[in-house]
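If I may wish for something, please sit down with the protein I am sending here and say whether tokens and residues agree:
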Amino acid sequence: MDTNKILAELRAERGRLDQAISAIEAVSSTGGRRVGRPPGTAQKRRKRGGMGAAARRKLSRLLKQRWAEGKMKRGKASKPPRRMSRAARKKIAAAQRARWAKQKAQQKSAV
């Protein structure tokens, strides 16, 4: 291949790319449509949290106190947990063993 011909084609391509780049720059620099926030909003800082450290500590103490009072009320008013007597537990266990025996007998008769 002829290197002079290849160089000529590449230079022509570079010329076309330069023209395209300059055209795009001209369109974007003429104040085309901006995307994003309006210019004034970037400088404004949002104010976060209207409570100081002392107020936060005070609120924390008050909430902890409220929760503690609630726990105390629940502790006094709640009933003790219901527990099963040994006789009731034995009765339930015997009934369950009878169910298992019955089920095993049915499985043996089915096989």
In short: The chain is about 70% helix and 0% strand.
